[in-house]
Amino acid sequence: MSDADYDYDLFTIGAGSGGVRASRVAAAHGARVAVAEEFRVGGTCVIRGCVPKKMLVYAAHFAEDLEDAKHFGWDVGEPRFDWKTLRDNVLGDVDRLNGLYTQTLDNNKVEIFHERAVITGPNEVTLASGEKKTAKHILIATGARPHVPSCPGHEHGITSNEAFHLDAIPRRVLIAGAGYIANEFAGIFHQFGAKVTLINRSDQILRGYDESVRDRLLQISLIKGLEFRFNANFEKIDKQDDGSLLVHMSNHEPLEVDCVLFATGRVPNIEGLGLDDVGVKLTDKGAIEVDENSRTSVPSIYAVGDVTDRVQLTPVAIREGQAFADSVFGGKPTTVDYACIPSAVFSHPPIAGVGLTEAQATQQFGSAKVYTSDFRPMKNVLAQRNERSLYKMVCHPETDKVLGIHMIGPDAPEIMQLAAVAVKAGLSKADFDATVAIHPTMSEEMVLLK
To answer: Best exposed site among 125, 156, 351, 416 by fewest CB in 10 Å?
Structure first.
């Protein structure tokens, strides 16, 4: 079958960050491209994930900012928070972004089918309408969804998807999980006035982040009034006559709350795609197995983003989509480098990190040189807020090459982006020491570490 005999050169299933980037770039390379999306163009990040969540984070910060403003001479009166105003404004901006992403595909002459598509052959998809389309290449970019525990009464809980659409901020919130989504929404709900309790089946939060940084977040969160219940597994959730929820868990007494938010990980969206029928292999965890070129076990079918078993981050999905399009349609073979990927947790205060943690470096090299700065930001001093920031640099024990940087404090993610460039470039502690500080800033601590 010649290329001209196919309806398209590329048919993408899923119009999230990875799918949109791959489709747009492939079309720019001259490919005939179509996308099927059964929900909204933009995917998890734009519609119900990192973008609207970051807007809630901004809003939550005003709670402390308005309180601190009094110490800087501002009389702001008695602040009043209106959740519905914030919610509707955020959802309105999501609509705007949905339109922009759709416009991007239209401008690149990518045909959009606003319906579900199922793979019915190595080069064929069938739309929900029953119409069949053929393509030389098929790209799966269907992302992932929140995991919901299967305990009795789980239907009474919500996930991060529904959190953006609440009619009101619940008075008492229980958040299940201790990863980045759990800690981010814990900070958001707390600053909006809710009583927040996090439960986790282990005794750690933010597994994978540097121990010093995550311990600092736990300490600050406890001081702020958040509660944690560790080594707790869901047993059941009872809905009571007054609408409240009674949550039963192992090793702890039952807890009465008004809302249960599940933030217990995400699972790939693979159901009903026809993968078994065409022989696409999956990993033990139910993700699509791909090689370094994002190719599945079926040569004509590829996959990028959270539906695979790689790194579940939006910028990674975008890079995978770009690399796929450049390799297959642009004549520029490209693979994604998964080393030194920076990440952030938009908690209160935020965390950011890149490279090896102290424990990882010690395990890999036998030991590590560690430099830190533990300080109270100038703004917190005048605001009479005792909250302290912590910056940490992990270096090779012999060469002093920077292996990792980890921090917690205001604007940590903003500072980390450029710090990640330095780690990726293989700079040493001496390179940081040789750089003149910008004073007075929090970021100057990066070149003053001891």
So the answer is: 156
Judge if 154-264 and 349-447 fold alike in CATH terms: no
List the beta bridge partners of residue 247: 237, 255
Q: DSSP for 64-112?
A: HHHHHHGGGT----S----HHHHHHHHHHHHHHHHHHHHHHHHHTT-EE
Query: What are the respective helix, strand and coil percentages of the chain, to the nearest 5?
Result: 35, 25, 40
The model's pTM is: 0.95
- Choose which CATH entry (3.90.420.10, 3.40.50.150, 3.50.50.60, 3.30.70.360) describes domain 154-264: 3.50.50.60
Residue 353: name the closest of 399, 304, 417 by CA: 417
| CATH fold for the domain made of 349-447 | Enolase-like; domain 1 (3.30.390)
Read off the tokens for 190: 């707390």
| Residue 186 near residue 272 (C-beta atoms within 8 A) | no
10-residue mean pLDDT profile of the chain (450 residues): values are 86 96 97 95 88 96 95 93 97 93 93 97 97 98 94 95 96 96 97 97 94 97 97 94 96 97 95 95 95 97 96 94 97 94 97 98 97 97 96 97 98 96 97 97 96
Q: Where are the domains of the chain?
A: 3-145+267-329, 154-264, 349-447
Q: How many CB atoms lie within 10 A of CB 352?
A: 26
Active-site residues, by number, are 439
